[in-house]
Amino acid sequence: MDTESERIEYAARHTEIIRYPRQHLATFGVTNIYYYLLTEPTYSEISNDTNETVIREGRVIAERPKIVTPYYLTHLEGFSYDARQYFQKLLMMHGPNAPGLFYTYKNESKGLNIVSDKLPAMIEKLTGEIDKKDDPLATIIKGQDDLWDVSLLKFIYEITSRSVHNNVMQMGSMGMLGASQGGIPVGVRQSIEDMFQQAWRGEIRAYELEQELNRWGVFEEYQDRFFSLVKGRK
Questions:
Q1: pLDDT per residue over 167-206, tens digit each?
Q2: Are 79 and 127 in contact (CB under 8 A)?
Q3: Long-range pairs for 167-171 at CB < 8 Å and ≥24 separation?
Q4: What phi and psi values does residue 25 have, to the nearest 5 degrees?
Q5: Beta 138-142 vs 31-39: how paired, if at all?
Q6: pLDDT tens per residue across span 127-157
Q7: What are the φ and ψ backbone dihedral angles of 177, each rounded to 5 degrees?
Q8: What is the spatial distance between Cα 32 and Cα 129, in angstroms, rounded to a whole number?
Q9: Model confidence over 8-36: pLDDT tens digits?
Q10: Cα Rg of the chain (Å, integer)
């Protein structure tokens, strides 16, 4: 394969989610998924020795889904011109206040081991161990050794796709996706209130709250409370 993009596409196509978690991503909390990412070592392609398996273990931590709109997304930093053009199309198609969900993830690697067993045998062994523990949030991923993080990202995409409908349904049933004053989703108002409490307790910094208020264009509405918070924290 000649280009990096071709290698990435190849790795994604040849990634297989052997065992999915039995639970969706939590709608109102943090989801902690333990993964086993199995690959054949890169050097096996040269030596044709596939009697070893590389096992990477870790946790994918999915934060509570955040309600966003296309307008909100245009204010996120770090996106390319093409991505911003896409968001503009979303604005035109759905309107600036059409709510959706935004997921954030953190990967915590726990270690890497190379074992003297073929990959299918290790899959069977790990499946048995997970069944014995009855862990509903464990997953087994078969990936590519040199681009194992691409394989992990494909899993993240898949679990998000499987969870988003359930998350939207739960939020919708509680009226959180409906519009409040100023066209802001009800759930966002609740999230802002939570952030004020977190900032007061010192769990987040004031500038994080300020950024969120600015993204939604409501800083002026909350500015008296915000400045009181800042003064009170000094």
A1: 999 999 999 988 888 888 899 999 999 999 999 999 999 9
A2: no
A3: 167/24, 167/25, 167/27, 167/65, 167/101, 168/101, 170/27, 170/28, 171/27, 171/65, 171/67, 171/101
A4: -65, 135
A5: parallel
A6: 999 999 999 999 999 999 988 988 998 999 8
A7: -95, -5
A8: 18
A9: 888 889 999 999 999 999 999 999 999 99
A10: 22
Q: What's this model's pTM, rounded to 2 decimal places?
A: 0.76
Asked whether the beta carbons of 57 and 111 are under 8 A apart, the reply is yes
**Cα distances (angstroms) measured from residue 46 to each of 49, 50, 191:** 8, 10, 53
Residue type, 26: A
Across the chain, the runs of DSSP E, i.e. the strands, are 16-19, 31-39, 53-62, 66-68, 100-102, 105-115, 138-142
Instruction: Give bridge partners of residue 19 from the DSSP assignment.
Output: 140
CB 96 within 8 A of CB 69: yes
Q: Is 128 exposed, middle or buried (0-12, 13-18, 19+ CB in 10 A)?
A: exposed
